[in-house]
Design goal:
Number of domains: 2
Order of helices and strands: HHHHHHHHH
Distance between the termini: 65 Å
Helix content: over 70%
Radius of gyration: 23 Å
Structural class: mainly alpha
Number of strands: 0
Largest sheet: none
Shape: elongated
Oligomer: single chain
Length: 212
């Protein structure tokens, strides 16, 4: 009984942590990969050393299974609603930015890619409506809105993202905010690359978008 107790407790602990802290799933994937590498090396070594301890096989397998169960627990966690349907402009944009970033730290978003695309579209539609009504005025609001725009798929969206990010970056109180300053540069590069032009700051990898 004792030999099963520790693995069960480990599964429970890893599962709870993975459910409550989704980014942990990426670390669990790395551990699974390392376990597979150890198993591969062990298999090769056992060809020459047949008296090797079975622990070299049992331990990596057990660790891999525990991590896999932990990942499955993490996938069971539902995503928060993509947007707020009520609240001030500041609250709505801050929340959209929060879920935008949280989605990209969740393994589920990469397994079900269409869900991330759908949620990005919901956020973008909301921010576009606010932008058309000229309700995005505060520097931090512009930064949050720019982040949503720069996850779009069109050159026109990247242009808007750069305009908003540049306005936010020019404000005195955000001059030393690394992420704000980075976004102003990244949105410009993404805009240029989408137009087939060279980037200026080297922040982008090659990607394809529609030019509109």
């Amino acid at each position: 009984m004792k030999k099963f107790l520790i693995p069960l407790l480990a599964v429970l602990a890893v599962g709870i942590l993975s459910y409550n802290y989704p980014p942990l799933s990426f670390l669990l994937l790395i551990v699974i990969a390392l376990s597979l590498i150890i198993l591969l090396i062990t298999s090769i070594v056992r060809v020459f050393r047949r008296n090797m301890s079975n622990n070299w096989v049992k331990v990596p397998v057990m660790v891999g299974v525990i991590c896999l169960v932990g990942i499955l627990f993490g996938l069971l966690r539902p995503l928060e609603p993509a947007i707020l349907h009520s609240g001030s402009v500041n609250e709505v944009l801050a929340y959209a930015y929060k879920t935008d970033q949280a989605d990209r730290k969740t393994l589920k978003s990469y397994i079900i890619r269409s869900e991330l695309v759908r949620r990005d579209s919901i956020r973008l539609n909301q921010v576009q409506r606010l932008c058309k009504k000229q309700k995005i005025a505060a520097p931090k609001d512009k930064f949050h809105a720019a982040f949503i725009f720069h996850h779009g798929k069109k050159s026109s969206l990247f242009k808007t993202a750069h305009e908003l990010a540049s306005e936010a970056a020019a404000v005195k109180e955000l001059k030393d905010d690394y992420l704000v300053q980075w976004l102003a540069k990244a949105t410009y590069d993404r805009w240029m690359v989408s137009l087939g032009k060279p980037q200026k700051y080297g922040t982008q990898e090659t990607f394809s978008v529609s030019v509109q």
